[in-house]
Write a sequence for this structure.
């Protein structure tokens, strides 16, 4: 796992950000009539992948919540792949652009699946040392 201190240190987050930024740049060339439909949808889903990864990282004290947020990221990555396919079929992306982005999302999905399947490698384990005993407060009458 290495020395990961922040979600920004996660390779999967870095890949998700890079892919979202590439999509942002490519969608600037989409037709104006797609601004509030395909352009908006693909930008939102691609950004949501990275956002859900960062949320998962902050919830790593709770394995179920961690896995849930990673699962959300996985879903958003798959949604982005669908929007990429539609953009390609509408001829807004070249085959090379669509394939390159699809491969990036396959790599992201692969990393997410690994994290989801072994959350114990990523989550914070509760301390095994007993809690210190705090003496009761004296009662004031």
């Amino acid at each position: 796992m290495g020395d990961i201190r922040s979600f920004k240190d996660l390779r999967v987050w870095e890949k998700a950000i890079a892919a979202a930024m590439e999509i942002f740049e490519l969608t600037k060339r989409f037709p104006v009539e797609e601004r509030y439909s395909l352009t908006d949808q693909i930008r939102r889903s691609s950004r949501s992948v990275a956002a859900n990864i960062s949320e998962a990282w902050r919830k790593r004290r709770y394995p179920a919540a961690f896995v849930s947020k990673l699962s959300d990221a996985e879903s958003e990555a798959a949604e982005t792949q669908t929007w990429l396919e539609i953009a390609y079929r509408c001829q807004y992306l070249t085959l090379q652009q669509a394939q390159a982005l699809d491969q990036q999302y396959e790599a992201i999905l692969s990393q997410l699946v690994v994290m989801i399947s072994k959350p114990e490698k990523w989550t914070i384990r509760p301390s095994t040392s007993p809690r210190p005993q705090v003496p009761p407060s004296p009662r004031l009458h």
